[in-house]
Amino acid sequence: MSGFTSRAVGYSSAATVLMVLAFVLSSELFLIGGLLCMALMVLSFSFIPGRPKVERELEREQCFEDETIEVLLKLDGRKQAGNLEVFDRLSPGALLKNSSNCAMLPPGKRSIRYVIEAPLRGYHPVGPTSVRRWDPLWLWFSQGEIDNKSLLTVFPSMITEKARVMKIAKIKQRPGDMKLRRVGLGKEFHSIRDYNTTDPFNTINWKASARNRKLLVNQFEAESVTDVMFLLDSRMVTRVGTMIDNPLEQSIRFTASLAAGLLQSSNRVGLIIYGSTVSVFRPVGGTSNLTGILHDLTNVTPSGYNTMGATVEYSLPYLDPNVPVVLLSPLSEDPTVKEAIKNLIGRGHPLTVVSPAGVEYERMVYEGKITPKYLLKRMARKNLIDDIRSMGAKVIDWTPDHDLTWAIMEVWK
Amino acid sequence: MSGLDRWERNLILVLPVLSLLFIGVLFHLLFPIHSDLGGWILEELSSVPFIVMVPVGGVLGYVLHLLFRKKAKQTIAYSKRMMVGLSGWLFLSVFISLLSGEGDILERLSEGVLFRAWAVFVFLLFSLSPTLFGVMAVFSRKRWALAVSVMSFFLLATSSMVFSQARNSRVLEQDPLMSLLFVWGMIVFIEGVNWTKRYIDRDPNEFPEMVSGREIAGALWRRQLSYTIIFVGAASIFAYLPILIVEFFRDTLPYPLSIYETTTVFGKGMLGLIILLPLILLMLARRRMDRKRRRDPDTDGDDAGPFPHGP
Amino acid sequence: MNGSRSGRIWIIVAISVLGLLVVSEIASLTLIGSGPELSVKDAGPGGLSLAFGEMEGRADVEVLLTSPSLLLEEDDPENTLFISIGPQREYTLTEVHALKKFHQMGGRLLLADDTGRINGLTNYFDMTVVRGQLYDEIFVGHPDIVKVDDVELGTFSGFLLLNRPSSVIFSGGLGIIRTSPSSWVDRNGNGVMDNLTSAQGEAPGPRYVGAISDPDFEDEGRGAAVLISDPSMFMNHMIEEEDNMEFLRELIDHLLPNGGKIIVDESVHETPGAGSWVQRGLSGAVFLITDVNLKIVMGTIAAISVFALAYVHEAPGRHRHIHMLDRTGVAEIVDPDISSGDIPEMRKVLLDKVRVANGMSRDAFSSLDWDRIRSMISHDTLYGFARYGRMPKGSDLTAILLEVNNWEKR
Fold first, then answer.
1. Domain A53-155: which CATH class?
2. Cβ separation of A366 and C326 shorter than 8 Å?
3. Nearest to residue B245, comparing CAs of B283, B221, B270, B271?
4. Rounded to 5 degrees, what are φ and ψ at C19?
5. What is the pTM of this model?
6. What are the backbone dihedrals phi and psi of residue A392, each rounded to the nearest 5 degrees, phi first?
7. Residue A383 is nearest to which of C327, C335, C352, comparing CB atoms?
8. B19-31 residue pLDDT tens
9. Which of B187, B265, B272, C234 could serve as a FRET partner for B6 with CA atoms 20 to 30 Å apart?
10. Per-domain residue ranges for chain B?
11. Residue C313, in any domain of the structure
12. What is the DSSP track for B125-174?
């Protein structure tokens, strides 16, 4: 594809018109002008640089929201007349932090560095690189694209510090290690006893054995872990607000943070995500599975209108008995909410409802204006929340003025 | 941190102004008949040479630039009203002249006072336009002002030539060297305004030149300046060669018969096009090779790149 | 897409039709088609190479290949002689106009024609070639070859041998070649002297074979035109007969007393072979740029094309990274105001508020009667609204909404 600047069109038009006028008016001035413009354009068309090779290096291919990534673009071509304009396409979900992903430079061996910030989770393509080869006078260019896409995975931002702190404070009905106070194969010390021939050598407590002049072994506490299921609402209505700040994104960050903390505490975490479809991810444990969970959360796209009631009905066979459920939903535009919650509580699942207030996020779009419709929806939401609380669920009414840390701390209160 | 040295910046700023002045002076030398054209409309105008219009137009242009900067919308609205007013004045003056005058249509029009006044106003406006809009283009960096200024020069030149042929039945003689200088001046003016817009006024978001964190605007400008000089120089040779051949070498070059056409602009133009033909063929060959490399990158190891969807 | 494609097709069709019209006009104007005659390049018996050589000896000679319209650019017409011998086509109006201007500016013309094709030009000089061969009793060998001794041109004294000449009539000029009183013009081409009744007929009498339009052109600083009604006297096989060559020399010296330049018009002669197409192409190009109507058309087309190109041209966009992070989504409060359609929801919200404030389940609340509910609400307006959906006079929905919002259990 070629592009012509206004100057190129001007010179070409001038060449044509001047030649015509030169002949018509027998003017040497116009003749010289016309021939000169024509020769200039022909020379300009003759000299454009060759196609360079372009390689890209990303500082890393995975990051979390709000982190910055440096991108290095290397160009390799011959030194020739003409100029290059290089544009490394970015995902519309990424921001340029500093420098620029567009550069104009002479051909040859060059490199371009720029830094991007990804405030939104997702799989962000970096590239392809568009190269415009300009003539030496910047009159026209020839454009092409290099198929060199890279993929940057941006995980939802997490707060893991607080989750660890939560583990230490012992309060009833919290998931995490349940110290059974009986001897088992855990890591925590329980007591010392005499050695018998079946004990492994690495359990011998040599100090105690030296003191007591007989072989003694350590005994450890048995551990038991808990499954926690996250029920994440990803319907289209959860997208209200801005791209970065809306009920779905907040819910995903919450889920990622809490899941990270729970996995670190040797619990197992499962996901049920509903929107246009219902996806069930069975509980997995171990911090090595965190990446998989983060990928599942990164992949979520708000869509569809599946109800909570239908989702719960579908998911019940996948829920182990009495498994704590954390429901993340704005609770809006779904008449089946109360029935679904009743169903869950009725089956013995301790339920925590974390509800980012969709109507509040939506109000932010209107610069915080309080309108009659907003009042009505807020009252309706409050009634719903009160009803849910009266059913025995813990409800966290999460408004935009509270951050993620607050929401997590509310869970453990 | 513009990437331009101080002298480069000053040169870029000064070049358009100097070139505008230069082409104004050259226009006056090339078209002395301009004052005769004014004299044809109103006798007193024959004593006003074009060179007077240059500074006057420049000053008015600067005033208009200031007005435009402070009150752009009002200035545009006022200009539009003025255009409508001018058109209305024309129709009214023609109407009144035809109704009240004596003789045939042309006589009535030429004797009509209102019509003459309109003609004088329009003539002055056209005569001032090249430098008026030229100065506006230099200071306000507006592309439309540059286009109007260049077109005004050509319009005035065309009018002068047509007037000369109509009145004296003679083709206006134009010195080829002066004509070449005029064209150079015009190119420097156009490129100068472009450089000002590109290298001095550029919006970093619109025209980034960050390479490894270092601005290379100065390097790019020097490169463009060098190539402009080289290309304009080469193009000038191609443009001037037919005239050189006809004026100086015609007698020495072998001709089967002396052809009259070569002494005319038509003949020189045809000669120029013939001289350009090899250059055009070279350009077509290079473009073809470039496109061939696109389709078959492996045939050229050097600069073949991974361009499956290339230009 | 289809619209622009069909528009493009229409433009191509319009340009093709216009081009065809212009090309056909040019082709018809430049058509000669009778084979090359009296050409300066022809060294055969019918050529003019010997005359051309003589001209070259006396002045700078240039050959005009395309059209005399280019004479408008001539910067020294007073020292320029335009020669057109035996034109094979008529001159166009533009060419006649250009030659007239050339003459007005002091240019000299030497025109030789026996067919009458040149009359379109010579009529301006009040000279006309009369159709019909001139015969004279004074001939050499064959009646076609007429011998003339009455020549009034400068210092020339000698005989001219003419080959199938015509005759010239003029007014206001001076005859320079006159035949004997026994000459007559065969107007009807039958070779017989008949129709003796009128001067327009074939009555014998002296006839003029050559005339000059401005005999005193030198003194008065004007141009001059000489018309000879026998171009073949300058042909290679005739020019060296009798004193024809001397006559040519005398003509050139008379018209260019100070020397100067001679322009021989070859545009009226057909070039043999492939050169003919080149010549016609170039002549056509000259017509395009010199014909008044075509000039206007060309200039207008060029100007319109430029403006159209400038109008449709879109400057290439700058590359710019555009992010979508400031996009927003709305759902529940898209329509900020409440209307009568929201009344059911408002009623539900009020009742739910009352129910929840009293810690009742939905089922329990549904079983209550309205009197009980009324006492719970303790607000007549709100009760009326909750039960019937009605509002007091002068009140609007927003006011009711605010009441509902402010309601608290007493």
1. mainly beta
2. no
3. B271
4. -60, -40
5. 0.79
6. 110, 5
7. C352
8. 999 999 999 999 9
9. B187
10. 1-29+175-299, 32-171
11. no
12. HHHHHHHHHHHHHHHH--HHHHHHHHHHHHHHHHHHHHHHHHHHSSPPP-
Inside any domain, residue C317: no
Tell me how many domains chain C contains: 3
The answer, for C286 touching chain B at a CB cutoff of 8 Å, is yes
Domain range spanning residue C116? 33-271
Q: How many CB atoms lie within 10 A of CB A330?
A: 29
Displacement of CA B186 from its chain's centroid (Å)? 5
- The three-state secondary structure class of C179 is coil
pLDDT tens digits for range A165-192: 444 333 334 455 544 444 445 566 767 8
- Secondary structure of C14-63 as H, E, C letters: HHHHHHHHHHHHHHHHHCCCCCCCCCCCCCCCCCCHHHHHHHHHHCEEEE
User: Domain A227-411 is classified in which CATH homologous superfamily?
Assistant: von Willebrand factor, type A domain (3.40.50.410)
**Pick among A35, A110, A129 to test the B interface (most B CBs inside 10 A):** A35
> How far apart are alpha carbons A98 and A114 in whole angstroms?
6
Does residue C266 sit in the same domain as residue C171? yes
| Helix, strand, coil percentages, rounded to 5, for chain B | 80, 0, 20
Q: How far is the C-alpha of A336 from the C-alpha of C14, rounded, in Å?
A: 68
Query: Please, what is the angle between helix B143-168 and helix B34-41, to 10°?
Result: 80
Tell me how many residue pairs between chain A and chain C have CB atoms under 8 A apart. Answer: 150
Q: What is the pLDDT of residue A292?
A: 93
Number of Cα atoms under 13 Å in the Cβ half of residue B51: 8
Q: Cβ neighbours of residue A409 under 8 Å, at least 6 residues apart?
A: A162, A166
Which residue does chain B place closest to C66, by CA atoms?
B261
pLDDT top residue among C259 and B184: B184
Which residues, in sequence order, are CB contacts of C380 under 8 Å at separation 6+?
Answer: none
Q: Do you know the residue count of chain A? A: 413
Q: Which of the four pLDDT bands, split at 50, 70 and 90, describes residue B207?
A: low
> Are C130 and C76 in the same domain?
yes
Work out whether the CA dihedral A277, A282, A285, A291 comes out positive or negative: negative
